[in-house]
């Protein structure tokens, strides 16, 4: 599909992340007006709450948009999602007779503050990147036990905390925690010295499932509303001490940052790709009816305070072994109900080369091989470093972007129990 041209001329630039083909969903606030739903187009945000109020945008089951979250629309299901996209495409297309009705509700992105685009119901994080699992397993358990025996059969995950999910630009405070290094005779409580990122995609569940009713991979795919870029901040020293036998807990509970725009699944349809060949056959309930991953280029940059931004990793979402639809289907096998606003982290996305690893743990090989950045080196994140995760799908004369997923790490509190 080629670029769809819009009367918002900035959207027609082949480097613009928000062409008419994209129409991603965010929540924005402008001076004197409460936060509400908006759709990015070019360098602007279309105020869909105003369009709905004026009767330009009328959808079954609405109104949906005069509120600071997309959950109501997400719950409405695929027919309403398609109706929204169809109507916005009519209104925003080049030559549209309705330009006059919409143009006054186009707000510059530069004048708006972006908030969480949806209310996170629950957050589950997976471990579905083959290269990441192999790298981390090799570091934690040695090359012979790198992949746990269940890894090629189950999309491994754990239940995270919805309360820890924050939107891009939120500052991240370096956590304290219980750690036990090889030189410690007993554990100590101290600020994390191995604070890290995890480059992931997040799948956002729109349509809920019922308790006691497992869903197929095809049904799971139909439930997914869209995708965000996700940074699952991780304290490796806390993780190494706490993770056996129940997996990560406080190491992953400081924060998880998401990009400000949910890219609807429909915008990603031209970029579907298949998961890689199975090394062992999967059980039938995990069979995919078609391509369930997406060809999305990803990059991570690091900027020290007052320093220069440099790219520290480049990879692609198609590196995953399991798709979000498989993960979602697996999630329901127990009878677990999924809710509107559930967020599924893909797991860290690493490629098979050194410069395509999706965490500093891997890039510096557990701190043993610090990597170069302009003017210095890094093993893990230092105070006041800014990390930016970006993703884009490359179309025919256009790109699909998610907005930057940005976080700056602040120094740990001097005394977290000071009152
Ligand atoms: Ca993770």
Q: What would you say the CATH architecture of the largest domain is?
A: Alpha-Beta Complex
Averaged pLDDT, please? 97
N- to C-terminal separation? 59 Å
- Total individual domains: 2
CATH topology of the largest domain: Fumarylacetoacetate hydrolase, domain 2
What does this structure look like?
There is one protein chain. This protein is of the alpha+beta class and 419 residues long. The protein folds into two domains: 107 residues, SH3 type barrels, CATH 2.30.30; 288 residues, Fumarylacetoacetase-like, C-terminal domain (Fumarylacetoacetate hydrolase, domain 2, Alpha-Beta Complex), CATH 3.90.850. 18% of the residues lie in helices and 27% in strands. Strands 6, 7, 8, 13, 14, 16, 17 and 22 form an eight-stranded mixed sheet that branches. Strands 9, 20, 21, 25, 26 and 27 form a six-stranded mixed sheet that branches. It is globular, with a radius of gyration of 21 Å. Bound molecules: calcium ion (CA). The site of calcium ion has 7 residues, from loops.
């Amino acid at each position: 599909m080629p670029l769809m041209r819009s009367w918002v001329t900035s959207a027609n630039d082949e480097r613009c992340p928000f062409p008419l083909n994209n129409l991603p969903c965010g929540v924005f606030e402008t001076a004197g007006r409460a936060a509400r739903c908006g759709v990015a187009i070019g360098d602007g945000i279309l105020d869909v709450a105003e369009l709905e109020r004026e009767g330009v945008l009328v959808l079954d089951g609405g109104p949906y948009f005069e509120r600071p979250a997309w959950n109501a629309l997400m719950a409405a299901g695929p027919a309403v999602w398609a109706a929204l996209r169809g109507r916005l495409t009519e209104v925003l297309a080049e030559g549209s007779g309705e330009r006059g009705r919409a143009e006054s509700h186009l707000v510059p992105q530069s004048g708006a503050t972006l908030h969480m685009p949806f209310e996170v119901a629950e957050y589950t994080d997976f471990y579905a990147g083959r290269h990441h699992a192999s790298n981390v397993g090799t570091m934690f358990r040695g090359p012979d036990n790198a992949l746990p025996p269940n890894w090629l059969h189950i999309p491994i995950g754990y239940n995270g905390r919805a309360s820890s999910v924050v939107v891009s630009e939120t500052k991240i405070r370096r956590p304290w925690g219980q750690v036990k290094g090889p030189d410690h005779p007993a554990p100590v409580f101290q600020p994390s010295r191995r604070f890290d990122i995890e480059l992931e995609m997040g799948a956002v569940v729109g349509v809920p499932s019922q308790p006691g009713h497992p869903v197929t991979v095809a049904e799971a795919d139909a439930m997914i509303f869209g995708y965000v870029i996700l940074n699952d901040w991780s304290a490796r020293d806390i993780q190494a001490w706490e993770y056996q036998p129940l997996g990560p807990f406080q190491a992953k509970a400081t924060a998880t940052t998401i990009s400000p725009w949910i890219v609807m699944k429909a915008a990603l349809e031209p970029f579907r790709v298949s998961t890689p060949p199975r090394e062992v056959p999967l059980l039938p309930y995990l069979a995919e009816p078609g391509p369930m991953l997406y060809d999305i280029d990803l990059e991570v940059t690091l900027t020290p305070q007052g320093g220069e931004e440099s790219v520290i990793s480049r990879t692609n979402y198609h590196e995953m072994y399991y798709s979000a639809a498989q993960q979602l289907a697996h999630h329901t096998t127990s009878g677990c109900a999924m809710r509107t606003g559930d967020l599924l982290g893909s797991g860290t996305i690493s490629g098979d080369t050194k410069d395509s690893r999706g965490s500093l743990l891997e890039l510096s090989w557990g701190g043993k091989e610090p990597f170069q950045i302009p003017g210095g080196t890094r093993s893990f994140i230092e105070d006041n470093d800014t990390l930016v995760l970006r993703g884009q799908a490359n179309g025919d004369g256009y790109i699909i972007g998610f907005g930057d997923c940005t976080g700056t790490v602040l120094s740990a509190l001097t005394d977290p129990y000071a009152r």
